[in-house]
Design brief:
The protein is α/β, with parallel strands linked by helices and 400 residues long. Helix content is 37%, strand content 15%.
């Protein structure tokens, strides 16, 4: 049975998406126009947060968060080794020190008990914050992390790039949306093509803290403000001459801090708005695919574990752990199934090894890496394609 390439993830661009992008391209604004605010409001409503700030990508979102929280040289921040490097790199951009803590072998998420041990074994004030990651789409229990953070006076950045539309069950058994701002100071999302919502590139920060929100707006655009009430220089200076009235001219602006150009374009925001309308439908489809994988692989002795059906799981990835991972990976590629590995442990990247991290420091994460493989998971994956993936995996191990 021949098959076209089946990737681990794929964007879904509809005619509606194309039409709204063309409409935006024909409008008066390609950037800094009305679509940005429209997308921000719609996304804040979707996540359940008070504020949202659209940015150029998820990495920019992380960087702006660390800047807004005043991370500086020597500040120690805890995160997971099983994540894309940007979750850690944002701390380094500000000169901070990344401290990795191991994962829970069942959830693959940052292990809160190990984080507590790390905090309790160090003098109070040693750490500034925590960046937990909703890895693969499974949401971290942020309510529990918030209690821990409060105990040690830490802030939280939720990396929810894998989990828009996801959430965790609180003690009242109700779902807390990823990025709703109830527990994390800031949360970030990515709109890379393989994510739930695609903008080509793009990102979003959500928060319920108005002070942080205003800082993010300035930092996103070179540190510049056009808000009269925030100006430091006098109206006379702004006008270039003495004026009778304390009125600032319409051209005037002030750069008050060192910011960046991390803006999203209007046509990307238009695409994001269109994609957001189908976000819930995409989550339903991803969960159906996960259910089919679970049913197919339950009690298979060659599979060590799988994600399992979890309430609130957004299923950006579907990960299994297998023996002979390299053999399976190569076999699938020969059959045009392009599975992926998520992730090489961050602490063993050459960049981070220079700070003293080494093999053996994160034993659970390192063991997970030896066996993990991400299977195709995206809403347009057909039933026939998924059955072919399942049959191929079964076939590989039956031949062993």
């Amino acid at each position: 049975m021949g098959h076209n390439i089946i990737p681990y993830g794929r964007q879904n661009i509809t005619q509606q998406d194309i039409d709204v992008v063309i409409e935006a391209l024909k409008s008066d604004y390609l950037t800094q126009g009305p679509k940005i605010a429209e997308f921000e409001k719609a996304f804040a409503d979707y996540a359940g947060s008070k504020f949202a700030v659209a940015v150029s990508n998820g990495t920019a979102a992380l960087h702006l968060c660390t800047l807004a929280l005043d991370v500086k040289e020597g500040d120690k921040v805890i995160t997971t080794p099983i994540t894309f490097a940007a979750s850690a790199n944002c701390v380094r951009y500000c000169g901070g020190e990344v401290i990795f803590s191991d994962i829970d072998p069942k959830t693959y998420l940052l292990d809160i008990n190990k984080v507590r041990s790390l905090l309790e074994s160090s003098p109070k004030g040693t750490f500034k914050g925590i960046i937990p990651v909703d890895f693969a789409g499974r949401a971290v229990d942020l309510e529990a992390f918030k209690k821990l953070a409060n105990e040690f006076s830490l802030w939280i950045i939720e990396d929810a790039c894998h989990a828009p539309g996801g959430g965790f069950l609180n003690p009242k058994n109700t779902l807390e949306n990823c990025g709703n701002g109830n527990f994390a100071d800031l949360a970030i999302f990515s709109f890379h093509p393989v994510k739930h919502i695609a903008c080509g590139e793009g990102g979003m920060i959500t928060t319920n803290d108005e002070t942080l929100y205003k800082k993010l707006l300035a930092l996103r655009t070179h540190g510049i403000t056009k808000n009269n009430s925030e100006y430091v220089n006098s109206a006379d200076f702004a006008n270039g001459c003495e004026t009778e009235e304390n009125v600032y001219p319409s051209w005037y602006m002030e750069m008050q801090t060192l910011g960046f150009n991390y803006r999203l374009t209007d046509f990307q925001a238009a695409l994001g708005l269109s994609q957001l309308q189908r976000a819930d439908e995409g989550i339903v489809k991803r969960r159906e695919i996960a259910f089919n994988y679970n049913r197919a692989f339950t009690n298979k002795n060659f599979i060590k574990g799988q994600s399992g059906v979890v309430e609130g799981h957004a299923y950006h990835l579907y990960i299994i752990e297998v023996e002979d991972r390299l053999g399976l990976y190569n076999y699938l590629r020969k059959n045009n199934i392009f599975a992926q590995i998520h992730y090489i442990p961050c602490h063993l990247m050459p960049y981070y090894k220079q700070f003293g991290w080494k093999e053996g420091d994160m034993p659970v994460a390192e063991q997970y890496y030896k066996n993990c493989i991400s299977l195709p998971m995206y809403p347009t994956l057909t039933k026939e394609e998924q059955e072919f993936v399942i049959e191929s995996i079964n076939s590989y191990y039956e031949k062993q």
